[in-house]
Specification:
This protein has helices at residues 6-14, 34-51, 53-59, 80-97, 104-124, 128-142, 239-242, 279-316, 322-347, 361-386, 396-399, 405-411, 420-435, 437-445, 450-460, 463-473, and strands at 19-22, 25-26, 60-62, 69-71, 146-149, 172-176, 180-187, 198-201, 216-221, 227-231, 256-266, 270-273, 350-351, 357-358. By secondary structure, the chain is of the alpha+beta class. Helix 1 (6-14) packs antiparallel against helix 2 (34-51) and helix 10 (361-386) packs antiparallel against helix 15. Bound molecules: iron/sulfur cluster. The site of iron/sulfur cluster (SF4) has 11 residues, from helix 5 and helix 8.
């Protein structure tokens, strides 16, 4: 196979039978549930763009195993060009869907495991990398989407995994068998776990001797027995279910908590088991890859936000207002700084011993810190330009009532030649992009907290070099 069409991707999800709960109900038909489907549609865009001539060269590359065309979302970076292209892909997709398209964490895991399994084998003579390569070939051959199970629920943050009263608050191995392992625990914020064919699990933090059960990495199908997806609530989360006031007419984001209720993993799908000293490397590389990834998707989302701001200026009659034009510039330079920082982390990447390329972690983390602050500012500017109706627009359902609908249309009119319904649609899109918690909170916490970004920057920066610059200028030997 090699490349799936958008339709084939959606049909392939129908064959999976995951265990899913949402809003107090067990969901049997995931693909046709409007809430989850809006998220699946966003991931489907990663397949759709690969079908479009204009984007095909960007979205696809050749498998190093078969030489066949594959989607870049299944390709651990093998060159600087691969690193750069993923930022460009994310920017394009961010503007296309205006939200998270949920396929990047899987690629971040593929890159991470490609490097870390090789490093573990080098030290221990194990065969994790062979297993991983077999898994990677399977992912590429079937053009699968993967989700990263990294963030443990963590319990009492002042305690290590083994110090917790409940030892399952970090995912761990509870049984080792001849044919595989049994794992128990829960992973939080699993964006797109039901849009994915595979769940790839990595440790969430550095570990030490005595914490071997927590040093585990593996991949399992998203409908594996014992795996439970509990879709979380977020602001605006019932709009798709109600069928109105969606804002973004095609795409959305959802984030389940994934419970691993004594899940069996065969050995051929285990990529780390007990090598505590590599847990830090695994989570560090995953996080850095994902922070690079964010710089692409969020600058793309800002493109859509700038577009919404410009349309609101047209619809409100403020297109020539000087301070609004200034605000557009403020949005553009934030997108470009984010994009530039993420691109720079790619151009400054390097080849690891495994042959996989890794980004510059300082630049990737600087990009993510920038995003955490500046996406909020972009949302504030967009709300400022759009106007107060972002807060409390009447529903589509009220517009459909004969007694009041025409009155709403009369009084929500902006510029005379613009249909009021278009103005309402654009205001709804602004609401969705600025106020949907599932997407906007990821600007801050996606890929780790702001404190984690700072710790990485301090650890990875060459501080001695900076001191030497100052000492030489001051004439100190
Ligand atoms: Fe990809 Fe993460 Fe951006 Fe979602 S938030 S589109 S998973 S980089």
């Amino acid at each position: 196979m090699g490349l799936k069409t958008k339709a084939q991707y959606i049909e392939s999800l129908r064959k999976l039978k995951p265990t899913v709960y949402m809003f107090g109900e067990k969901i049997e038909n995931v693909v046709d549930n409007p809430r989850i489907r809006a998220g699946i549609n966003a991931t489907a865009a990663t397949y759709e763009l690969a079908e479009i001539e204009e984007h095909r060269d960007m979205m696809t590359t050749k498998s190093r195993f078969t030489g066949e065309a594959i989607n870049r979302f299944t390709n651990p970076p093998q060159s600087i060009e691969d690193l750069v292209m993923r930022v460009k892909i994310n920017r394009t997709l961010g503007g296309w869907v205006g939200t998270c398209f949920q396929r990047c964490t899987g690629l971040d895991c593929l890159g991470t495991l490609s490097i870390v399994t090789y490093d573990i084998d080098k030290k221990y003579g194990s065969h994790y990398n062979d297993r991983f390569i077999d898994f990677l070939k399977y992912v590429q051959k079937n053009d699968l989407a993967a989700n990263a199970g990294v963030t443990d629920v963590k319990g009492d943050r002042s305690l290590s995994p083994q110090e917790q009263e409940d030892k399952d608050l970090y995912l761990r191995v509870v049984e080792r068998r001849n044919d595989g392992i049994v794992v128990r625990g829960a992973k939080a914020h699993q964006t797109g776990s039901l849009s994915a064919h595979e769940i790839i699990v990595l440790p969430t933090r550095a570990l030490r001797k005595g914490e071997e059960d927590y040093a585990v990495a593996f991949a399992i199908p998203s409908d594996t027995r014992g795996l439970i997806h509990v879709v979380g609530r977020n602001s605006l989360d019932t709009r798709e279910l109600e069928g109105v006031d969606c804002g973004n007419m095609y795409y959305s984001k959802y984030c389940p908590t994934l419970i691993f209720n004594d899940v069996f993993v065969p050995w051929e799908r285990v990529f780390m088991c007990g090598e505590v000293e590599f847990a830090s490397e695994a989570v560090g590389r995953f996080s850095a890859y994902h922070r690079q990834s964010h710089g692409g998707c969020k600058s793309g989302k800002i493109d859509a936000m700038i577009g919404a701001a410009l349309m609101m200026m047209d619809y409100n009659g403020t297109a020539k207002v000087g301070h609004h034009k200034e605000k557009i510039v403020d949005m553009i330079y934030r997108a470009e700084t984010l994009f530039g920082c993420s691109l720079a982390s790619s151009y400054e990447g390097r080849k690891e011993p495994s042959g996989t390329y890794f980004i510059d972690p300082v630049l990737a983390n600087a990009s993510k810190i920038h995003e955490g602050k500046e996406m909020a500012e972009v949302g504030r500017i967009l709300t400022d330009i759009a106007g107060g109706y972002v807060a409390d627009l009447p529903s589509d359902k009220d517009l459909a009532i004969p007694d009041v609908g025409p009155l709403i249309e009369k009084y929500l009119k902006g510029v005379a030649n613009i249909p009021t319904k278009d103005r309402i649609r654009m205001l709804r899109l602004v609401e969705k992009m600025v106020m949907e918690s599932a997407d906007t909170i990821s600007d801050i916490h996606g890929g780790g907290s702001a404190a984690a970004h700072r710790i990485t920057i301090l650890r990875e920066s060459d501080l001695e070099y900076k001191k030497s610059c100052a000492k030489r200028l001051a004439g100190i030997e």
